[in-house]
Write a structure and sequence with these properties.
2 copies of one chain form a homodimer. Chain A is an alpha/beta fold and 304 residues long. Chain A has a single domain, classed as UDP-N-acetylmuramoyl-L-alanine:D-glutamate ligase (3-Layer(aba) Sandwich), CATH 3.40.1190.20. Helices cover 37% and strands 25% of the residues of chain A. In chain A, the strands form 2 sheets. In chain A, strands 5-4-1-8-9-10-11-12-13 form a 9-stranded mixed β-sheet, with helices on both faces. In chain A, strands 3-2-6-7 form a 4-stranded mixed β-sheet. Chain A is globular. Chain A starts with a strand and ends in a 5-residue tail after the last helix. At the A-B interface, helix 7, strand 13, helix 9 and helix 10 of A face helix 7, strand 14, helix 9 and helix 10 of B.
Chain lengths: 304, 304
């Protein structure tokens, strides 16, 4: 099935204790689409870049069979830039600088062919733009979205409207607590589920992810890695693996949702092994399967 | 099999956002022995209390068939007191006050019958006292210990000697990083395993536990609870369930170690549901089994 993603495409300058990447490829839609490309038949990308966007990055999308009909290029403008830093903790980025550039007037307009997409991911963008995208897709089977503290504080009503319209919300634990105004994660999840989404996935960095639905909780660990170089994009790679797998199997039940979460965790674990998309864009499917099985070995225990 | 525990027995005054317990029963050996009592044939307790120790607490040990021949009572002294507070995070206690009292001259001397114990847990006490206990047990099949930042900083050499002599180290993630002087938990674990123990269990509060051995890593989640009243004793309840289960099955292999970690996590999850040992001391084995199965439901996913 076709999978639509709408989000940012960026040039990141990232510093971690292990090195620095300058003006490297980044952005939520970038990480998502490359991660999803290993699973979904077709990934349809909607985003905007400036005239300065290096052609080699376009090549990367094409190499991954990502449909870029919806990738708008504003020749007169500059690509969105983000500059951030991580300390040894690696769980939270400190944003040093943001230049929205062409992203500030981003107005997601879907090519006709994209409107048929049955799987939809709204990356972390203005909730009003998220509505605009949902208005354009015809009959999605599954919709998911991300958001961040900036929108939780700045546009709570618009965000609530997004939540009424999506099936799945994928956010981190701090955002979960902030959105629900509730410190306990289980009670926070219940509150958020009452607002619309039938599934909430809480990303917890190195601690993995928790999935909440009406009757189930699923806990997936973070993959214990000896070397983590750059956590940028891990959450979007997770979402890409998750939605990509579901678009591929096209059967949304508890079994596949859990598998999808492990595939999401798998893609996130590869993402952080190198800067930018250096690792994520050079995977083979057997490598992905091998890590999935490693997650199984990591968590399995016998019944009593 | 018989399981020996040596540690503190305390009267705690604990404040959490959800209430306060004043001079309630606490201490590492207390939580450990009650948790272990649901599994092990016989739990042998070594500790010291003062003349002020309420007889009802002695009754509690006896109700759980805990052998208190090694529980020394110093009639002239006062029982160890700890006063602490938790904020909404609940992952770390702030110690407000400590009165070691009779615990300051604690000199663990094992009754003759205890020396035959085959399973041994050295709770968080001076590593020199840990050596003293190991010198007294005859032929233990499995030994495990806990420690804390105070000993890591204050008695690193004595602690290293303990580590050379035990099979399993059970500490929290902050202590793991501090002990290994290494921020990455996987590399920290490798370093610590090279010093002696063949298994390291890293407790991560609400995020569960990670087990490291030469060839395996096992990740157990924290149980997602809607109400957590008091995290005091969770780590020792974990250790009690873990060692208690192994002493019960008396076969130490990967399968049982993983099961033991889930039983440990189970006991920790009950512990935090109420103040002091209010929940932990009132369990039935079917309740324990039910939560074990809930851990299975929480973590299970299908192979691909």
């Amino acid at each position: 099935m076709s999978l639509l993603v709408v989000g940012s495409i960026a040039l990141d300058t990232v510093k971690t204790p292990f090195g620095e990447g300058r003006e490297v490829l980044g952005g939520s839609a970038t990480y998502f689409s490359v991660a999803a490309s290993y699973f979904a038949d077709r990934v349809c990308l909607v985003g905007v870049v400036g005239g300065d966007f290096p052609p080699k990055h376009i090549q990367l999308f094409l190499q991954h069979n990502i449909d870029i009909e919806g990738l708008h290029k504003e020749d007169e403008g500059l690509t969105f830039r983000w500059k951030g830093e991580y300390n040894y903790d690696l769980n939270e980025a400190v944003t040093l600088d943001t230049h929205l550039n062409v992203f500030s007037s981003f107005n997601p307009s879907l090519p006709e062919a994209y409107r048929e997409c049955q799987y939809v991911f709204l990356a972390n963008i203005d909730p009003e733009l998220q509505h605009q995208v949902l208005d354009q897709v015809k009959q999605p089977r599954l919709t998911a979205c991300d958001t961040m503290n900036y929108w939780i504080q700045g546009k709570p009503q618009a965000l609530k409207k997004t939540l009424e319209r999506v099936d799945i919300l994928i956010i981190n634990d701090g955002e979960t607590r902030q959105l629900a105004e509730e410190a306990n994660i289980v009670r926070a999840a219940k509150k958020i589920l009452s607002w619309g989404p039938r599934i909430l996935i809480v990303k917890r960095g190195e601690y993995g992810a928790l999935m909440f639905s009406a009757n189930n909780i699923f806990s997936a660990p973070g993959f214990p890695l000896e070397y983590i170089f750059d956590p940028t994009g891990a959450g979007d790679s997770f979402a890409g693996g998750f939605m990509g797998y579901l678009a591929n199997v096209d059967t949304i039940d508890e079994t596949n949702i859990r598998r999808a979460i492990i595939f999401g965790s798998t893609m996130a674990s590869f993402c952080v092994e190198d800067f930018s998309l250096n690792r994520l864009s050079n995977l083979t499917y057997p490598e992905i399967e091998k890590r999935y099985k490693a997650f199984k070995a990591l968590t399995h225990f016998e019944d009593i």
